[in-house]
Amino acid sequence: MTPDLDKSLVETAYARWAPIYDAVCGPVMVKGRRAAAAEARAQGGKILEVGVGTGLSFDDYDASTEITGIDLSTPMLEKARAKMATGRYPWVKDVRRMDAHAMEFADATFDCVVAQFVITLVENPEQVLSECHRVVKPGGRIILVNHLYSEVGVAAAVERWAAQKTRGLGLRPEFPFARLQAWAQANSDAILVERRKIKPFGIYTLVCFERAGPSLAA
């Protein structure tokens, strides 16, 4: 495994990505993005999107939701704010520059937290998950979508090779599900409720955790 990505590398990489991100990554990530947003819409209410980037996902939500987005990249957020300024997305209430490792929100603020193609790229994934868990309400969900490490076979070997080549681009293709699972097991009120491959090719995996409510914790 390659080490977790440091914050400065990610900021630099995504400043470069910002001008072309929608054109390059929009079509590639569309299935995973829509699957995550559909799960979030099913929860409804106040949704936090961690790593909102350029606001690619704004079209995937609707008036049943109230979206707040955070990201570390100022150039990416400028693109998101330009989308908001068109008036097409009244359900997007705010986007802020914020470090997901130390969120500036009170406990139990959101009904749902979504992180699309983010958790494998942060400096400390477990800390970010714990922050997501802190700011979601009891009974609320943390919804992740990402490519996760294949672990065995030719695909795993390719991912390990690619990890060395793509690090400077702010990418990490060999992050294992086992780390997400271990985080949940270490948190008694974090429950894994779903793990599924996204059709048609299974490149991305949707993972959902629920923060146990008082009755479940009891």
From TrEMBL:
E.C. number(s) listed in UniProt: 2.1.1.17, 2.1.1.71
InterPro entries with a match to the protein in the record: Methyltransf_11, Methyltransf_Superfamily, SAM-dependent_MTases_sf
Keywords: Methyltransferase, Transferase
CDD domains: AdoMet_MTases
Domain Methyltransferase type: 48-144
Protein's UniProt keywords contain Flavoprotein: no
Cross-referenced Gene3D superfamilies: Vaccinia Virus protein VP39
Gene Ontology molecular function, alphabetical: phosphatidyl-N-methylethanolamine N-methyltransferase activity; phosphatidylethanolamine N-methyltransferase activity
Matching PANTHER family: METHYLTRANSFERASE, METHYLTRANSFERASE DOMAIN-CONTAINING PROTEIN
Protein name, UniProt field: Phosphatidylethanolamine N-methyltransferase / phosphatidyl-N-methylethanolamine N-methyltransferase
